[in-house]
Structures are given as C-alpha cells and as structure tokens.
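It is worth pausing here to work through a concrete case rather than discussing structure prediction in the abstract. The textbook approach is simple: state the sequence, then state the predicted structure, then interpret. We follow exactly that order.
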Amino acid sequence: MKVLGKCMDAKTYRVQTIREALDLIREELGPNASLLHCRRIRRPGVRGWITGGTDLEVVASVQNDVPSRLPGEALKWLPPDTQAAYGARIFSGSVKSASSSGNFEAADPERSSTTLGHLNSLRRGLGLAGVDSQIADGLIDQISKNIGDQGFANSEWGFRQIARKISETIPLGGELHCQEGVSHWVALVGECGVGKTSVVAKLATAYSGNLKQSVALVKIESSSDRRIPDTALDEFAELMKIPVFRVDSTNAMQKSAPQLTEKFDLVLMDTPGIESREMPSMTAIQEILNIAKPDEVQWVVPAYTKPHRLGQSASDMAALKPTGLILTHLDETFALHHLWPALQEIAWPVNYLTHGTRVPEDLTVADAKSMERWLHRSLSAAVESEAAPTRNNEAIYVA
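Step two, the predicted structure:
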C-alpha cells in the first residue's frame, strides 16, 4: 500500500484491493469518512504482469459531507465470491455508506465461506512454492473472478487456473519456422552443460524421421573441443545416418555453407558452451554465425536456472541475437514458475521444452497447453515436496 498524499481534506491511497482501502480509511480517517472515488491506474513492475498493469487508487475524505459512493464503487472491485464475506464490513457503518443504493443481495454464505477457505489455502500454497506474496495476491484476485456460483471444491482447481494465467504471460514461439523447398539454418547457443547437443539430437531425429526432411549437423569447435573430442554427437549421427560437418574457423564455415544450403532442408549448428566471462569464446562463435547467417538462433536454457541469473545471461547472449529459447531439464526441477517473470521480461519466445533423455519423445513444442501443464506440475510439486524432487513425485507430475 502507498499513501500518495492529501489534497485539501481528501486523502489518496494506492492499494491492491478495496478491502485494504476500507481498513486503511477506517484506521486513519475514522468511522465517519466517505469514499469519494475509485479508479484503476497503471501498475509498475512485476505486479503489472498479473493484473494487466493496474492498481486501485482510492480517494477518501473525513470532512466532505456528501453521500458516499462506497457501495457501487466497492462492489465493482470485489470478486463475486468475497462480496458476501465482506459485505457486512462494507455496510456496517465503519465507513459512511449511502442508504439509497445499497440493496446488496448476498451470495450463499456457506458457499462463500468454503470458497474463501480454498482461496486462503491456495495463497498459503503459493507461499510454500516460493511465490512473492504480492504476486500471489494478484493471481488469487485474477482467478477469483472466474469462480462460478458453485465455487470450487479444492485448491487443485486453483493451481490449474494459476498455471493458465502464468502461461498466458510467457511469449511462445512454437516450432522451427521451416519452409518447404528452402534450406533452414538453426544455431543452438548456451552455456556449458545446458543440453545443447541433446537438443540437436532430438530436433534432428524429429525432423529427419517424422517430418522426412534431409538434415545435416554442424559442430562448431573450439580449441578445447579439439583436445577432447565429443563422441556423443558422432555416435548419434552414425546411428541416424545424419552427416556431421566440423567447423573451427570463419574460413571453414564460408567453404561449407554453400554445399550445405544446396543439399539439406535443415542445418542444425551445435556451438561450444559459453561462459559469460569467456568473451573470446563468445566472439569466435559470433564471427562464425555472421558467416553462416542462421535463420534462427535458439538459446538453450535449463529450467532450473535462477531468475536473476537468467536476466544476467540474457544480457551476455544478446550479442548472438537469439530469436527464441529452448527450456531444458524440466524433469529435474520444481521451480519453473520462478522463471516466469524473467521469461516475460526478456521477451524472447520459448519454442521447445525438453524433459528427459528419450530421443525425440522428450522434446515438446512450447504451446500454451504444454506450458500450462509444466507450470502446474511445478507449482503443485513444490508445495507437496518442499524439498528436492524424488522418483515418487516425479511419477505423479510428469504426464
């Protein structure tokens, strides 16, 4: 809550809910105060992602002797399920109300009490899952607007609704944007150990097998790669009969690019692991990508990445001009929901999700349905476990 100031005898508050406003007015201005004005205003920062970017601005006065607009204004901002529970407080006289317009018909008290209990349980659950309290309140306010006359039976429904709300705010890009008859180049970039080679294998299998496209793999090698050969990619390529081209310089890339473009529908480029402090590595990759001119640059990010770390890495990776993200290792974390504000902020669309070692079964297109399902799993499992994932609860939440 913020008290924005006074103008003559009026006092202005910026709050999240009308309930908070009523409590503040009663406490600071007394029982004879009048509520003069309510309006929605633009909300800054993370909270705006949840409610469409608004706060409730309330103006109250203890001196103006005018009929209060409280009933019409207050009910306008209250979710239906809370009107009955808070109706008595609104019309109790603790804040001046108009008698002429207050024919408020209460909802079923038993239903309202039950629903409020589930909402409070859901709010506690979000706290256990590590969701910021202000963000949790905004999410609760949003889903409470969708509750019908019958309420809801348990918090499981609530978690699904919250997962849906969160998924709606995350940019999604869908599949690779391949066009028939045109060679499509995709570079995968990211830090060491995030699963780039595994993603290359999954994409290559999906497109060469299911979609019947001709696929080539380009392994961009650093000096350390030449010292320690990556045999996993070679073994996979041999098994799938997919050619691998190794490139260690801009000259080599310039020579290989024309024949690759002529022969293959899809060219997947596996780049060396990048550490944010290792700028020579970043520069070398950038120079080769400038020659190859890939149609897409997919940034591979493990889903267990800390939100602040994701933001820092995004600044480093911006030099490579990513067009989208691939989230990996979803089966190893219950913290996907923590990444949501950072994903929304950096604004690069999520294209794929990976959640296991099977090729290509554990690669999923990041559409609204799949994102909602994994967010629901993340929230529910975080509440139930409050610990590291185990085989037992993995089996419950991985569909």
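Step three, interpretation. The chain has three domains: 2-77, 109-167, 184-366. The first strand starts at residue 2 and ends at 7.
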